């Protein structure tokens, strides 16, 4: 099977896919922020949450429902910053995934990725990583919302965790973006083979 990638390009394709997968998995998982409420572990993502209080009408009490799910509506996301973070990070993950899958196809299809296309793909990866990084930077601005305060011992504020801690999914998303911006963008410059000049 012919490849349109150099040796550096094959490494770029594999790393691009791994970075995209890390960022996408981290973005989807609701383990960006970890805390507890009513002695139950609670976690938040940008658009998902695990364990939340519901009113039990039979017992006339509030109980913790221990399951993960998305917020019912986009407006249901606890803060404006988290809504922006969801959109920005989602677009960034989409760009990284697009480039990662295209790069993998370049391993099997000849003349798919030239030097110029490789550099353009690297630029797209840089923008995707920048968007995800912006989303990760925006996320702590939402820690002053009422839902987060209830989970973090009523002591959280913007950039102040209170009784909570950062979860693995936040690090996974951010590290995938940083690796894509720094390593993959650089490797993309050497990914494509020089195109043959055909005399006409």
TrEMBL record:
It holds the Pfam family L_HMGIC_fpl. The chain crosses the membrane at residues 87-108, 120-141, 168-191. InterPro entries: LHFPL. Its main location: membrane. GO terms for cellular component: membrane. Keywords: Membrane, Signal, Transmembrane, Transmembrane helix. It is found in: Membrane. Residues 1-21 form the signal peptide. It comes from the Eukaryota. It is a multi-pass membrane protein. This is LHFPL tetraspan subfamily member 6. It comes from Anguilla anguilla (European freshwater eel).
